[in-house]
Amino acid sequence: MPDHSPTRQRQPLRLSVVIPILVIVVSVALTAFVLQQAATGGPAEQDPEGAAQGTELELGAQPTDADAPEADPSEGPGAADPGAANPGGEDAGPEAEGPAAGPEAEEVPDMSDVERRDPDDPLAVGPADAPAAIVMFTDFQCPFCAVWHEETLPVLMDYVEDGDLRIEWRDVNVFGEASERAARAAYAAALQDELLSYHALLFPDGETLPESQLSQDGLTELAREAGLDAAQFDEDMNSPETAEQVAQKEEEGMAIGAFSTPSFIVAGEPIAGAQPTGVFVEAVDRGLDEAD
Q1: Could you tell me if 144 and 138 are in contact, meaning their C-beta atoms sit under 8 angstroms apart?
Q2: Was domain 73-291 assigned CATH 3.40.50.620?
């Protein structure tokens, strides 16, 4: 006899029930994973010993990007920023504020061997045998160099005219091609004995010229303003001998760590940045006292 009792049919498993369950399970698993990582400090802690340490410097900070800080001549070179421009790095910090002072300060190294004292060096003023000397590492696109030339150089020129000081320039050209071109132009002007007048045109009123004016044509026009023989200027500016001299001076600056501008050796003392004029006067006076 057939069984006509009612039977329960098995219902198919519905996706509308399964999917929410799976979502809940995955969410719980992810939450547990995140909590575990937070408790253990993350998948990999960074080793502080492996962090970038930078390049060891002696006079300035390593350049790291393309733009120079803007100088505010109203504040003078001795404002809060001690006045060392990198083409995009950090400006020279408090440690670059001239010779160390105080009874516990480390002895300042004697770097007078950087001085050339070459009587035929066109990028120098003052007697080759002056009792004190300044070597300036500079760049014609450096705003702090421009401020220094406007505010401090005139004071130091009194020492030069008295025969007590020699100033030698080294263009390190950290701002690139336009700076190198301007350095060759300054060298060409110096060959016609117009170094300082050409510097004044490159740093008008303590400011730098825009890069567009540091083209070949722009630099030749400055030579005309300075009363130079423009044809001779162009020939000298583009000669292999000038390029060699400019490259050699740049290498000298890099060799001693003058990666930021301006940097100085004053009577053997390293000074970074366009410090207040008094810092340079005191350093020169110390050098003169030691020379007596």
Answers
A1: no
A2: no
